[in-house]
Amino acid sequence: MYKQHPFYNVVLLGEILTMTTKKNEADPRVIRTRRLLQDAFASLIQEKDFESITVKDIAERATVNRATFYAHFIDKFEILEARLMESFMTIINRRICGHEVLNEETIQSIFLGVCDFHKDLSAMCKRRNASLGAVFETQIKEKIQTILLSFIDKDKMLSSSNAQFLINTASIMLSWGMYGLAYVWNKEGRQISAESFVKQSMPLVMNGAKALLE
């Protein structure tokens, strides 16, 4: 007779609990538990390679059971993504606070935020986890693009199909360019400060931003 694997029941329970949890994301208890799990993961990533970290490890470090983990996250990749995206947005929001229009100063602040993120990622992943950022590289680039486009006037975006194409293309080039430059700066050991690096790179970056600023 066919027997269900115990893990199947855990996953099903997790799916049911996840649907319930998503309705209560503003609940202080939900926020507290998610924070507890993310903090547990953050401490483990300092001690172990990502590949060797298990859901059981995270749950035990957070002093909860695995069913509780699955009520908040699908797997360890989702908790990693949540941790990285939260860290990224906290850094960027701190950098662009007070900016209301897209100009050279705003772009420079976003660029500095991307450098900050890469530096913090290296600090978070002290062991052989240098490639973890690459797992969600596309999501980070898309988030940078979304931030850039949030400063663009909607009427300008919709003025013509050509304008929409140019703005969208320029925002992609700019987001990928800033991410790539910051990645190389960090990978090569941050030989100069982020401020000096960004200042030196800004003339090239601004060449790609013309369609966004016109």
UniProtKB/TrEMBL annotation:
It comes from the Bacteria. Keywords: DNA-binding, Repressor. PROSITE patterns: HTH_TETR_2 (PS50977). Gene3D superfamilies: Tetracycline Repressor, domain 2. InterPro entries: Homeodomain-like_sf, HTH-type_Tx_Regulator, HTH_TetR. Residues 31-91 form the HTH tetR-type domain. Pfam families: TetR_N. One of its GO terms (molecular function) is DNA binding. The keyword DNA-binding applies. Residues 54-73 bind DNA. This is TetR family transcriptional regulator.
